[in-house]
Structure prediction request, 386 residues.
Amino acid sequence: MPLHHFRQIIQDLPANPGAEILRYGWRKPDIISLGQGEGCASTPNFIIKAANQAMLEGKTHYGPVLGQPALRQEITEYYQRIFDVDLPQNRVFITGSGTTAMHLALTSILDKDDEVVAITPIWKNLLGAVKITQARTIQVPLHYEDGKEWSLDMDQLFDACTSKTKAILIVTPSNPTGWVMSKEEMRTLMNFSREKGIWIVSDEVYSRTLYNELHAPSFLEVAEPEDLLLTINSFSKSWAMTGWRLGWLTGPAFAENVIRDIALYDNMGPPTFTQLGAISALREGETFIQEQLNDWSRNLDVITERFDANSKIHTYRPPATFYSFFKVDGEDDSLKFAKKLIDETGLSLAPGCAFGNDVKSWMRLCFAVSENKLNEALDRLEEVIE
Ligand SMILES: Cc1ncc(COP(=O)(O)O)c(C=O)c1O
Prediction:
């Protein structure tokens, strides 16, 4: 392909090994794909009905660039109800997916050659999105010790920041490790952000996927209204709406016009009728969220039991998300191992190298599938490991 016709930055974009592996396994017969991050449940009917109704009522026209006021209001009520946080409507911006929220956040603050300090391992798209802005990413890895939870060395994070640092990028709960930043760590980091004038960009897409709590801590709980904080969120995971492409961004009120301007030039705002479905998701979705978590939790028990019984597998039971992140003795190259799993047993998993420099021997498995499918996948994995 004659890449030289495109922008230099596009030519320099690193390959996405997760997407490569998905394509690699795509057409293989009898493939079990646990490489992508989504639950197997379809969107619940009450959400679909609300969107259908909106379409039938003619809500098929252009809408406000930052989203329907009714949904922006519903999100403020959601934060009040679930997080006990006051977040006025003018700090909530509806976007056509969490991914779009991420792009709006990053393109609104990053200039060429700015530095972004990212806590890794991290969802690869965030690194790609930083690259497209022509900023540079500095990776600060979480630490793992066998059998212990992932942890962050706060001093290491602070030391990685320089006068060029424009933002600190965090995914909490983390895709792929399930690590959850504590409220205390958030408070410390928010103070640091205030002192240095550095933005915090917090991807909180998995904030409702905790197994023992109603929600994960949010930076919104420790922030002041004018703090340099952007949070990214999505309807994809907790409300089973991946195909709807709907999310939201929160920021300080002074960001509203900036985000509106960029969104206007980008896609002129999210679809109209899907937002009316999303209002129902927030109003009536709590039972569904809990039911999904119950299913995922049973699967997590299955994985934990089977991985614990296998001395070649190293992992930590995640407190949140639907990912198991693990490494296997003797398999140091995750891309090679991912291809081997597809070739030898028809199992597709995401290779750790997609998530950062320090986890190239790790693998990510999405366990939000039926228990049967999960057991079959684990049988196949063990077959290759033995
Ligand atoms: C951390 C994180 N942020 C954002 C997204 C994307 O969400 P959406 O489907 O709303 O684009 C994902 C999807 O896997 C994710 O893992």
In short: The chain has two domains: 3-43+287-385, 60-284. The radius of gyration is 21 Å.
